[in-house]
Design goal:
327 residues, Rossmann fold, 2 domains, 15 strands, binds nicotinamide-adenine-dinucleotide
């Protein structure tokens, strides 16, 4: 519903207010999406079981329900009472390493939990769901000199990538069977303020924290200990938020995109940039190849790229380091 606002003699029309339910909105990316939705004037409800998220990440203007997406009754009741226009599905078991150790847990959260959400969307006639998928893991190894385009056949090499791909397939099925519209956003390696530096993923967060405290860190091998480490496509969280807002409001036309920069950076190049920006005295050690690590993942943003220009690594790192300095 468009809301006219009278301004002296003029009538201005603002964008319609939407009701947006964000799963995982106490986490790194979900909380930034919540901030942006609120700033755009929308109503936001966050649901999160605080597995890795934190209550303090949830903006005060958002409603919050603590609960687990694996609890079908909780999910059903919450969606029936909030009646969202759009569900932004960010909640997940996000660790590739945990998925390798506990594939059943990963599938329980990432597949069965998501199915609870899809069923509740259908039962309550929710128009659209935006799904946080993974470009970083779903394509498997990306050969040197190549960028994984959106039409590449997924080759998931971890249970985490399998569970994300499974949900993408369910979304096709729910669209055909129930008319539930969906947008799939395949994120590359996302970094920025609020990322957890204590986990085993999130290399920018880990290096930011360690370099700012002059603590040593290791560059784990891509193939052989002492090499430059794995190559990743690092995308700043603001660009991920732009993609989500575009999908939520309908300004993004595509139903599936890579959310990425198209630029590959090795761990050593990343470490050198961060040390250059911080002047850190951290010792840089080397480590062996970590089992399960994809050697190289760089994505193709598309032509023309639906997100336009993305934040440069230097600008994104500066903003991230500023946040870690004060948090
Ligand atoms: N960070 C990245 O580089 C990246 C890359 C590709 C895809 N993704 C995807 O983006 C999404 C957000 O990731 P993030 O980096 O912000 O991680 P995060 O861990 O900060 O956020 C995930 C949130 O989901 C919540 N959650 C987990 N299990 C839940 C459950 N059973 N019920 C309710 N809430 C639950 C957690 O408490 C947390 O707040 C995830 O779906 C992730 O798979 C992230």
């Amino acid at each position: 519903m468009h809301r006219p606002q009278t301004d002296c003699n003029r009538t201005r029309y603002t964008a319609p207010t939407m009701r947006i339910l964000i799963t995982g909105g106490a986490g790194f990316i979900g909380s930034h999406i919540a901030d942006a939705c609120l700033s755009a004037g929308h109503d936001v409800l966050v649901i999160d079981n605080l597995l890795t998220g934190q209550r303090k990440n949830v903006p005060t203007a958002a409603q919050f329900e603590e609960g687990d997406i694996r609890d079908a009754s909780f999910v059903g009741k919450t969606i029936a009472s909030f009646r969202p226009d759009v569900v932004s599905h960010q909640a997940a078991q996000t660790s590739v390493a945990i998925s390798a150790r506990e594939p059943v847990l990963d599938a329980d959260i990432n597949i069965l939990g998501t199915l609870n959400l899809l069923n509740a969307c259908v039962a309550n006639k929710v128009g659209q769901i935006v799904f946080a998928s993974t470009g970083g893991a779903i394509y498997g190894e990306v050969p040197d000199g190549k960028r994984a385009a959106i039409d590449w056949q997924p080759r998931p090499l971890s249970p985490y990538a399998c569970s994300k791909f499974a949900v993408e397939c369910y979304l096709v099925c729910f669209a055909a069977e129930h008319g539930l519209r969906s947008t799939v956003l395949r994120y590359a390696n996302v970094y920025g303020p609020r990322q957890d530096p204590h986990g085993e993923a999130g290399v920018v967060a880990i290096l930011s924290k360690r370099t700012l405290h002059d603590e040593p860190f290791s560059v784990f091998a891509r193939v052989t200990e002492g090499d430059d480490g794995c190559v990743r496509d690092y995308v700043y969280v603001d660009d991920v938020v732009r993609a989500n807002l575009g999908a939520i409001t309908g300004s993004l036309e595509q139903s599936m995109i890579n959310v990425c920069t198209g630029v590959g950076t090795s761990t050593r190049e990343l470490a050198d940039q961060i040390i250059g920006l911080t002047g850190s005295k951290s010792a840089v050690n080397t480590g062996p190849r970590r089992p399960g690590d994809v050697e190289r993942s760089v994505l193709d943003p598309g032509s023309p790229p639906p997100l336009g220009e993305t934040t440069s690594l230097e600008d994104g790192l500066r903003a991230t380091l500023d946040w870690f300095r004060t948090s």
